[in-house]
């Protein structure tokens, strides 16, 4: 009986040793995967500052124009809250020093936009918020490129492309409202045309991407349908009806694009983990 017990204990000990050794061997791999998983979410949160900067400027201009005032004020408040929440979440992510520094710079730019957006909108403040929103977008674009290199996963580019689609949709709408407010400075119409072309190209890139799930395909189809409504809206004259249509269709479009970007985030996590 003792022999059997000793044999059982010996077998158990050997199993425990083997299990412990296996866990120790896998720990670095697990840690790396968890870091990458955190990185994919941090990537999405960071690039979302592009769309939030443009939605903030868009809704602020809508308020100046008196376009659906209650709706526009609600969008503006929601955007400001999302910006703060996003940076709070990013502050908990384990990021390399260079990325953390870049995100801190984006935060400063975003806070400057936020400080302006609490003022009653005038032509001068709308112009200032518009310029600041482009600074946020430019800084975020540069940071997104660094994120892609750090992630070392080709599919990270899809989050970047999908995230940029969100921002382009809102900048196009913003520029439509700036035109209506007669704040369409030099090059604005050319930028709108370029953004429309880039948006369409982005959809083609996403449709051709190897990563696809039923949820992604569904959101791509919804996104293209909403884009057609939005594209028709921005071709309208900026009269009262046209302004309201662009305001509502741009919000429906960005809602779909937000879900699409989150689907790519989820797909990237599946690849990594």
Ordered list of secondary-structure elements with their pairings:
Elements: H1 2-65, H2 69-90, H3 97-117, H4 123-151, H5 156-180, H6 188-208, H7 214-234, H8 240-272
Helix pairs in contact: 1-2, 1-3, 1-4, 1-5, 1-8, 2-3, 3-4, 4-5, 5-6, 5-8, 7-8
Q: How much is the average pLDDT?
A: 86
* Largest sheet features: none
Relative strand content: under 5%
List low-pLDDT spans.
1-35
Would you count the extended β strands for me?
Answer: 0
Q: Helix count, per DSSP?
A: 8
Structural class: mainly alpha
The succession of helices and strands, N to C, reads: HHHHHHHH
How would you briefly describe this protein structure?
The protein has 273 residues and is mostly helical. Helix content is 86%, strand content 0%. The chain is built from eight helices and no strands.
Describe this protein's structure.
With 273 residues, the chain is mainly α. It has one domain (34-272). The chain is 86% helix and 0% strand. The protein contains 8 helices and no strands. It has helices spanning 2-65, 69-90, 97-117, 123-151, 156-180, 188-208, 214-234, 240-272. The radius of gyration is 24 Å and the shape is globular. The model is unreliable at 1-35 (pLDDT under 50).
Name the features.
single chain; 273 residues; mainly alpha; 8 helices; disordered N terminus
